[in-house]
Design goal:
The complex is a heterodimer of chains A (about 110) and B (about 170).
Chain A lengths: L4 E8 L8 H24 L2 E5 L4 E7 L3 H10 L2 E2 L2 E2 L2 E7 L2 H4 L15
Antiparallel strand pairs in A: 1-3, 1-6, 2-3, 4-5
Helix pairs in contact in A: 1-2
Chain B lengths: L3 E4 L7 H6 L4 E4 L6 E3 L12 E4 L2 H7 L5 E4 L6 H9 L3 E5 L1 H4 L3 H21 L2 E5 L11 H12 L2 H11 L7
Parallel strand pairs in B: 1-2, 3-4, 4-5, 5-6, 6-7
The chains are: A alpha+beta (about 110), B alpha/beta (about 170).
Chain lengths: ~110, ~170
């Protein structure tokens, strides 16, 4: 059966661009592995699929691991030895829905879809 | 349902970040509500909305209708919880105790908070899940707070009600 995925729109405290991106991804995966443990990491299978301006990025996970990834992102306070923190802004089953404003939202967050 | 967060006195953040994080409003100690530290010597505000302290007898004495009680220790006695429930006060469970700790300390804190939650729920006390962040780096979005609350309580609806109705009541105290 097809795996059910969830997309998490998250914001990093420090914008990441260009050459710093591979190092950021690698260190984020390592931190998530520390928080989730090997078994839960395998269930969640997180992957950054899009990096945007202002520190916004989209993280894809399996449906079972969505809650654990959101908690892990709340708990990560250091990345590569530097202070960092993450906010998860939205979760959705599709990337398109991440860019649509929810009812009552002041403004939509552009994800460039 | 609109969601609200409560942060500690001195937490400076931009107002627009509150909306970005998914909250209708973030109540800041010292600005939107008054907080009193029962452990500090000197004059204290007896009409404060939130009381923070380590002495359970003093906390129990200040557990009046609508007041928020933030014990310094994670595990609290059944007597204090019963007093909080009888006087319709609110027990505050700060999520900073999970997000700002590491390793075994964090896992122990999670275990103790779950234990306290179970006891409080059994006795019927009102519980507030709030970040009680002291800086913008320890603040959480609404989605993160809901997941952290689910980690403690196991029930998303309960956490949403706490973030929506219970947290909002601090403005009315």
């Amino acid at each position: 059966m097809k795996e059910k995925r969830r997309y998490i729109l998250a914001k990093s405290s420090k914008p990441v661009t260009g050459d710093a991106l591979p190092a950021f991804e690698s260190s984020l995966y390592h931190e998530l592995l520390k928080m989730l443990g090997e078994l839960n990491y395998a269930d969640a299978n997180p992957k950054i699929i899009k990096m945007m301006d202002n520190g916004l990025f989209i993280l894809r996970t399996n449906m079972e691991g969505t809650g654990a990834c959101i908690r892990a992102l709340a708990m990560i306070k250091k990345l590569n030895g530097e202070d960092a923190f993450f906010y998860t802004l939205k979760t959705s089953g599709t990337i398109l829905a991440l860019s649509k404003p929810r009812r009552g939202d002041a403004a939509a967050v552009s994800v460039g879809v | 349902m609109d969601l609200y967060d409560i942060v500690a006195p001195g937490c400076n953040f931009r107002i627009e970040d509150g909306a970005l994080l998914g909250f209708r409003k973030i109540f800041v100690g010292g600005k939107d509500f008054s907080a009193a530290d029962l452990d500090s010597k000197g004059k204290r505000n007896e009409d404060a909305a939130m009381f923070i302290g380590s002495n359970e007898r003093e906390l129990a004495a200040h557990a009046k209708y609508g007041k928020f009680i933030l014990p310094a220790r994670i595990v609290v006695s059944a007597q204090l919880l019963a007093r909080i429930k009888d006087n319709e006060a609110v027990l505050c469970m700060p999520m900073e105790r999970i997000t700002l700790t590491y390793g075994l300390v964090r896992t122990k804190n999670i275990y103790l908070m779950k234990k306290t939650f179970r006891m409080a729920k059994r006795l019927g006390a009102k519980i507030s899940f709030a970040s009680m962040a002291s800086s913008p780096s320890s603040m959480n979005s609404a989605g993160q707070l809901i997941e952290l609350g689910k980690l403690i309580s196991g029930n998303e609806e309960y956490v949403r009600r706490s973030l929506g109705i219970v947290n909002k009541s601090i403005a009315d105290v």
